[in-house]
Amino acid sequence: MKSTMQDRELLVRDILAHGQRVYGDSRVVRCADGPAARSSQTFADIADQAERLAAALTRLGVRPGERVATLAWNTPEHLVAYLAVPSMGAVLHTLNLRLHHDQLGYIVEHAEDAFLLVDATLLDMLAPLRDRLGGVRHVVVIGGAPEVDLPGHITVHRWDELLAAERPGFVWPDLDEREAAALCYTTGTTGDPKGVAYSHRSISLHTLGVSASAGFAMHDGDRVLPIVPMFHANAWGWPYAAWLAGSDLIMNGRLLHTPDLARVINEERPTAVAAICTIWNSLVRHGEQHPLDLSSVRLAGCGGATPPRALLQQLKDRYGVRLKQGWGLTETSPLATFAVPPHGTPDEDEVDWLAKSGRVMPYVEVRLIGEDGSEQPWDGTSVGELELRGPWVTGSYFNTEDSPEKFHDGWLRTGDLGVIEPGGWVVVSDRLKDGIKSGGEWISTIELENAITEHPAVLEAVVVGVPDPRWEERPLACVSLVPGAEIGGDGLREFLAGRVARWWIPERWSFVDAVPKTSVGKYDKRSVRTLYAEGALDVWLPRDSDAQVPTESGPPQE
Amino acid sequence: MKSTMQDRELLVRDILAHGQRVYGDSRVVRCADGPAARSSQTFADIADQAERLAAALTRLGVRPGERVATLAWNTPEHLVAYLAVPSMGAVLHTLNLRLHHDQLGYIVEHAEDAFLLVDATLLDMLAPLRDRLGGVRHVVVIGGAPEVDLPGHITVHRWDELLAAERPGFVWPDLDEREAAALCYTTGTTGDPKGVAYSHRSISLHTLGVSASAGFAMHDGDRVLPIVPMFHANAWGWPYAAWLAGSDLIMNGRLLHTPDLARVINEERPTAVAAICTIWNSLVRHGEQHPLDLSSVRLAGCGGATPPRALLQQLKDRYGVRLKQGWGLTETSPLATFAVPPHGTPDEDEVDWLAKSGRVMPYVEVRLIGEDGSEQPWDGTSVGELELRGPWVTGSYFNTEDSPEKFHDGWLRTGDLGVIEPGGWVVVSDRLKDGIKSGGEWISTIELENAITEHPAVLEAVVVGVPDPRWEERPLACVSLVPGAEIGGDGLREFLAGRVARWWIPERWSFVDAVPKTSVGKYDKRSVRTLYAEGALDVWLPRDSDAQVPTESGPPQE
């Protein structure tokens, strides 16, 4: 039986229109350094600019579905592009400015980007891409002079001039909600980057989904600071959710050094802050020596990696901040779970809940597939690969051969290993490829890293599996220490005793100035493994150990 | 450009599955009178029954899209039907048990109901419907013996036996999200009732929409008491929203007398309560003489009619309860607006915001059409008919000839007259057909009713327009007084002076024991107008007035 309901498509333009008409007085704050450290605009202003940008891009000949790429910090202009580009029927392609130019060039070509919106401060990044910009017709320079040497077929514009030449009042087209609205490439550590093309529908549903109490529950009194970059999986959905709820948005631009972030937080008093764990960690360290006022923060979100329990505890004890994990991938828009402790959780149990990867979101389905391919129970002990399904989960990759290894009967294989507890609580223990199977049993590198990081002398710790003649694989801990602190492998092994199973305790320890990280700030385990295999790591072993390590001259002899 | 996202339909079964798997320990409480006054079940239990009900209906031969009607109070079984019937691909048709049997018979026939799920206490209602049950194949009696005399072609079952004979584990089918999931008839005061067929998509989106902070923001710590009947526009979306959020649900069944409701509230300590304004009014009156503990209530919702300002003020002053209006129609699922005051509103201004009909919800569009057919600005003063558009707004009626008078270029004409203030705040002043145009200017009957009700002697007041030889139309006030109170037209006219424009003050006053109400508890203005026209109302006029009133022997002479 057919329903009688109106056939209204779910479009990004509805998000734009709602913030514009209903919350036109809400504000977008631009933070900067120097004398013009702060300025702000209303949502009405931003929407006006979105209408002008759409008019300008139309005048320049953008076609429906064409890719308009951004190479930009978290700025009001980036927000304008978030709203305008999908609403006009083009596809917003957020480029990751942390990528090596080889990868970036590959992505720009593969996505067939036709327009580039680039922050003036990032123009230098285009030089090494010259040869890959064959498909780019226009470059729009944001916030500065367009001083750049580009191939002759590209027309260069200034953002301000382009928008000033247009009038607001652009009429947004009717679109199919299943058409692509945005494109984001995964920063896979193996193989070529792969594009995920979000639809208007998936963005709309993700935005509504994260707006519930099991998500961010943003409201018109919030002041939202998404430190997570807008090129990183839609900044976890925070900009759209904040715009739809009428929350003020604080855009920190290039201010990413910890003292700058601390200043922004102290001055802007955000109620909601999203950042990867390493940023939260740096903020807490910074707060030990300098003023850091987190008293305004009611919602603190992190993602990208599991936060050490010590960090959760410190944030709670010192600042009353409950840092909530989100778990997901670029492929999942990204929020699949979020760690909101059950209402009424006693104070002393809160960190136990915050330490989990989160509870599955409405309309997202999660399942656990064991090594034998069978579905595992939600019992908190059965381990398997986590698989996801839902209206904001990808089912394929853009312009790429089928990737059967990424999907399983219509479910996305996340590549994450973990358990599901009763009540839909996911606890990720490892990336499948990072998991360590030692003597036939799994060791969770994430749990080990957390346990090591609890030692006050440890700044960061990354654990990888390395070959071992006796146990097949054993953990190697690569550790950086708090400046001035001193501890060795012996001390840390002692510290771990009682904290983790005895056979989990690594024999191999490497102390480094900084642990390697990927372009989005995650621990770069592949690098650590490679460095180790090449004998390029200085490895400490207990005196009585029979473990061996490779050297520059070759692998250990068996 | 096509997106890469999974094509997952939005289905009611996803709501069911989420509550079942993620919040299986949340509870559904059954309130009753007598010795078994209270019992409760888990969400897991309810979902188990939903699976059994689907298996039973399948065994009885329900076909995809067939209507399964409910004639039931707010009970756990009604919730089971809410979850099971749409999820299995049939259509849940909630029958309004307050309707006259003529209308009910018309609706059962028009909807082609094939199954009836009926509370044992309501079986008597079927007797006068005997001749209209030709299409009904099975009647399932909930909570009692199936003692009923029905036509021979109908098989009668007991709910308990039917479910006990099945096993849980029903496999919910894949469905098209645009198929009908539920059906509800409008209780129009003119013409035949009309059916609105909600889709899986519209229910899903409405549920997500009302779950945001601009809506109910229910969470797993809430205890939700929807006093609003489940046959009344999906109980405003509260059951599905509570289920999706894992909020406990309190089902008050047949307990609708004010002392019983007060007892339920005092004992169950709900955090969220939804009821029409007259119920809230009665509760407040009751609380003047008896214990009423509203301290647990964080969310109080009302709808169906504009609450008098006096009621809002009393609830706030005496109980700290901010009663929030929702505005919408059966045709709009129903929430189109909700009156959440802007965050940070000073205490003394709160009632000003609560007195509005609400702020437009995300993904719902509202516009104002003036008498000349042109769109009016959101300036808070331009009056017009409110029109709505959105994914949970109906675009037609079930099995009915086109109703062009109900739609306008793809927008639903709400039949409500009002203004839109900047920021998307709707203030309904009247039903279009109830609006009074006196000497060429609009008088808001709702505002007049509110002003009259502020007098402490007044229990309820309804204002209608009546013909007037000089001004075309003038307001007539029909008033019931608080028991024991005494006041007349003179006193109330004096009271209104200064509170409303002088020319708004009614000349015609009628004092009655109870103001007439419709089947869903709204003021029945049509009845009042008819009674007046027939001279059946005792009307008081000021001594110096030249106004005239009809008498039983005929209309006033001109």
From TrEMBL, chains A, B:
<keyword id="KW-0436">Ligase</keyword>
<dbReference type="InterPro" id="IPR042099">
    <property type="entry name" value="ANL_N_sf"/>
</dbReference>
<feature type="domain" description="AMP-dependent synthetase/ligase">
    <location>
        <begin position="26"/>
        <end position="398"/>
    </location>
</feature>
<dbReference type="InterPro" id="IPR045851">
    <property type="entry name" value="AMP-bd_C_sf"/>
</dbReference>
<dbReference type="InterPro" id="IPR020845">
    <property type="entry name" value="AMP-binding_CS"/>
</dbReference>
<dbReference type="Pfam" id="PF13193">
    <property type="entry name" value="AMP-binding_C"/>
</dbReference>
<comment type="similarity">
    <text>Belongs to the ATP-dependent AMP-binding enzyme family.</text>
</comment>
<dbReference type="InterPro" id="IPR050237">
    <property type="entry name" value="ATP-dep_AMP-bd_enzyme"/>
</dbReference>
<feature type="domain" description="AMP-binding enzyme C-terminal">
    <location>
        <begin position="447"/>
        <end position="522"/>
    </location>
</feature>
<protein>
    <submittedName>
        <fullName>Fatty-acyl-CoA synthase</fullName>
        <ecNumber>6.2.1.-</ecNumber>
    </submittedName>
</protein>
<dbReference type="InterPro" id="IPR025110">
    <property type="entry name" value="AMP-bd_C"/>
</dbReference>
<dbReference type="GO" id="GO:0016877">
    <property type="term" value="F:ligase activity, forming carbon-sulfur bonds"/>
</dbReference>
<dbReference type="Pfam" id="PF00501">
    <property type="entry name" value="AMP-binding"/>
</dbReference>
<dbReference type="InterPro" id="IPR000873">
    <property type="entry name" value="AMP-dep_synth/lig_dom"/>
</dbReference>
